[in-house]
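FIELD: query
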Amino acid sequence: MSRADQAAPDARAYARLAHDVGKYVARIAHNIGSGPIPVALAGLLAGDLYDLGAGRSASQVFADYAAVLGEEPELQAVAARLEAVDALEAGVRAGDQDSMREAAAHALAIEVELRALAARKGQGGAEP
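FIELD: result
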């Protein structure tokens, strides 16, 4: 088995993580601009962050992947962002503008960070 073949399962796992967490946490966050946030978006944003299916939050889904993928610095950074998102849950669910804006900013950063990590791992893990 070649080195690339050995790395392939990890590369696929990073790609799934970018999809299953990164893509989904940022769906509604992309619609939050600098102006007032419609209250209707609070429930949608909360769904993206705190209910990715089967009643599991993004941080719970992420933790499952992180347990398998190991101690990547990027994963630690994403974990910290998800902790911040979890701390904002009550405010997001209540439609608090500041909480929603902060959670959305974290969500967008999570998406970028996980996509970049997946792209790097998909190239055989080569460092830039």
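FIELD: remark
DSSP finds six helices and no strands in the chain.
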